[in-house]
C-alpha cells in the first residue's frame, strides 16, 4: 500500500503540464513507468538498509 505522500508528489503535474503545454494524461502516461520503477527500487534499498 502506498502512503499519502505519493499523492503530494503527483499534485504539481497539472502545473507542469500547463507550463509545458502538453496534456496532463500524456504526461502521466509517460511518467508512470519511471515513477513506479523508482518507487520500487527505493523501497527495496530502504528495506535492505534498515
Q: Which spans of ≥5 residues are poorly predicted at pLDDT below 50?
A: none
The shape is elongated
Order of helices and strands: HHH
Mean pLDDT: 81
Number of helices: 3
How many strands appear in the DSSP assignment?
0
Report the radius of gyration as a whole number of Å. Answer: 13 Å
Supply the helix-strand structural class. Answer: mainly alpha
How many distinct domains?
Answer: 1
What is the chains' assembly state? single chain
Taken as a percent bin, the fraction of beta residues is: under 5%
Largest sheet features: none
Assign a percent range to the helix content: over 70%
Task: State the end-to-end distance.
Answer: 19 Å
Keywords: Membrane, Transmembrane, Transmembrane helix
Transmembrane segments: 7-25, 31-49
Sum up the structure in keywords.
mainly alpha, elongated
Structure report:
The chain has one domain. It is elongated, with a radius of gyration of 13 Å. The chain is mainly α and 50 residues long. The chain is built from 3 helices and no strands. The protein starts with a helix and ends with a helix.
Topology overview:
Elements: H1 5-10, H2 13-20, H3 24-49
Q: What would you say about this model in short?
A:
With 50 residues, the protein is an all-alpha fold. 80% of the residues lie in helices and 0% in strands. The mean pLDDT is 81.
Amino acid at each position: 500500500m502506498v502512503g499519502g505522500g505519493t499523492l503530494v508528489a503527483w499534485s504539481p503535474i497539472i502545473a507542469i503540464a500547463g507550463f509545458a503545454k502538453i496534456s496532463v494524461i500524456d504526461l502521466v502516461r509517460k511518467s508512470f513507468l519511471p515513477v513506479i520503477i523508482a518507487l520500487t527500487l527505493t523501497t527495496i534499498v530502504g528495506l535492505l538498509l534498515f
